[in-house]
Structure formats: C-alpha cells, structure tokens
Amino acid sequence: MTISKLAASAALLLLMSSCATTIAEADWVKGEAPGASQKVLTEVTKMVFGKSGLPVVGPGFDPVTHTMRSGWRTDLVPIKRQRSRGFRERAWVKFTPAKDGLFSFEVRVETQINKNLARPLDLQYADWEEGPDSEKRARHILQLLTASLRQGSRR
After folding, report:
1. How many Cα neighbours within 13 Å face the side chain of 114?
2. Domain CATH code at residue 39
3. Number of domains the chain contains
4. What does the alpha-carbon distance between residue 29 and residue 134 come to, in Å, rounded to a whole number?
5. 115-124: per-residue pLDDT in tens?
6. Are strands 67-69 and 87-97 parallel, antiparallel or unpaired?
7. What value does the CA radius of gyration of the chain take, rounded to a whole number of Å?
8. Cα–Cα distance between 32 and 37 in angstroms, integer?
9. pTM, entire model
10. What is the 8-class DSSP label of residue 116?
C-alpha cells in the first residue's frame, strides 16, 4: 500500500469512529410501551415525527441498528433574549422487544446551532455546530409515542 492509501484509510477509520460515538454517547430518554409489529412501530413513529414538526425521511426503520431517524427541523430565526442564532434538530428513536409484548424505547433529539452571525436567516450560509441534546423534546416525543401505542393496543 502506498502512503497516500494508508493515510486515506486512517482518515476513513477516524471518520467512521466519530460517527459511531456521536449516537452512542448521546442523551437517550428511555421508556416502554406495548407494540405489535415493526410495521406498526414504524408508522406510529412517523406519525409522531409529523406531530412534532419533524420531517419524515428515508424508508423508515433500520433493522440493523433498530433505529428510525427524522430529518432536520430548521429554525433560523434568532431569538435575542436567548442569544440563539437559529438552530436545527432531529430525532432518533430506537426500539427493541422487551418482555410480555412490550417494547423498550430510547429517544434522542440532537441539536445543532447556526454559528453564522453575518447572515443568520440564510440557510445557504448556515454554519452548523453541535449543540446539547434536547431532553425536553425527547421526553415529549417519547410521551407521544408511548401514548399512541397504548391507545392503539386498547382497541
């Protein structure tokens, strides 16, 4: 192998490891609810994303990681009193079978903050920086998810 190929391989490994640690080290909010099938869980999660103002992207559930991810919901309007320069957020939902027909859920809402001060309202010039996870939004999504599944299981 040439030196450039070794350097490229090392860079790729570093990039892949940083992506994996981002989700693993995140703040996940946990809960349980009854569930039927993977299809029902996927549809209910898509519905909850929509109710929460999060765009639904992709095919849905990833069977390898047992996760679903929303698209980014972007809010570029700066709020002076909160010293916010605009932000975006997206949700992650993991579900795995637990006991007695229950499923274990973990929800994370990842946030990013727009660092661009010159043109904070122009998405084209946004410069995103990782922000703290929103535990409050994650709890809200988990509550909607578990309530929808409990209500559906009573029918």
Report:
1. 24
2. 3.30.530.50
3. 1
4. 10
5. 887 777 787 8
6. antiparallel
7. 18
8. 15
9. 0.75
10. -
